[in-house]
Amino acid sequence: MSTSIEGRPEETPPPYDAFARACPSRGTLEHVMGRWGGLTLSALHEGSFRFNELRRRVDGVSEKMLSQTLQALERDGLVHREAQPTNPPRVDYELTPLGRGVAERLLSVVHFVESRMDEVLAAREAYDETRGAR
To answer: pLDDT tens for residues 14-65?
Structure first.
């Protein structure tokens, strides 16, 4: 950190800017903030899951979407996949330290939204009444 003319520390801008078209953080943000990525990370915050356990926990996700989501999150370093050499093979998924940090922040948003759903539902109803249900 450098010091400003007034003697206060100046923040160094981060090396990545998600608002810039070519920023590589956009792909990770898409994986984390998409419906299935966010729910998968939030579920894994509860602990290690096998694939089908995780699929049941993230109700509504298809096998294909969960598989793609887990691969993307693993590639981004957020999820660790552990294959056990058993017959049949056993595969467990858990968060990495980086994934745990992301999941904790996501869970803050999840809990906030859940706690304010009455307001959201009322806003939707008011919107639909003034603009016609869509």
So the answer is: 789 999 999 999 999 999 999 999 999 999 999 999 999 999 999 999 999 9
Give residue for tokens 């869970």. 107
Number of domains, the chain: 1
Instruction: Check the CA dihedral 69-38-117-132 and report its sign.
Output: negative
Q: Which of 23, 66, 7 is nearest to 41 (CA)?
A: 66
Q: Could you tell me the residue range of the domain that residue 92 belongs to?
A: 21-131
84 lies in some domain: yes
Collapsing DSSP states into helix, strand and coil, what is residue 133? coil
Cα separation, 17 vs 36, whole angstroms: 24
pTM of the model: 0.83
Does residue 124 sit within a domain?
Answer: yes
46: left (phi over 0), alpha (psi -120 to 50) or beta: alpha
